[in-house]
């Protein structure tokens, strides 16, 4: 009898879940045409909050760009300065001919 009560309770659970699933599907289908207008209205309502954040982000990007370029190009400029030949008096030859 225990196995039969488990089978019945499983069947009841499956039946109840399917009823809830069908009900949820009906609601989703009924509300689907409203989804796009609700999303658009939400974006329009949040736009005033997003404008200052976008402005702050752009300002931070403009300020960070030169710093990043200097950090990136700094070592290569230092190498170029070190590799330049120095102009000055030519050194005397090491093996000077004796007269």
How would you characterize the overall build of this protein?
This protein is mostly helical. 83% of the residues lie in helices and 0% in strands. It has 1 helix and no strands. It has one helix at residues 2-83. The longest helix is centred in the middle third of the chain and has 82 residues, at 2-83. It is elongated.
Could you give the topology of this structure?
Layout: H1 2-83
What are the salient characteristics of this protein?
99 residues; mainly alpha
Tell how many strands the DSSP assignment holds: 0
Q: Which spans of ≥5 residues are poorly predicted at pLDDT below 50?
A: none
Helix content: over 70%
Main β sheet profile: none
Mean of the pLDDT scores? 83
Shape: elongated
Class by SSE composition: mainly alpha
The total count of helices amounts to 1
Radius of gyration: 39 Å
What is the oligomer described by this structure?
A: single chain
Q: β content, as a range?
A: under 5%
The N- and C-terminal alpha carbons lie at a distance of 126 Å
Give the SSE string. H
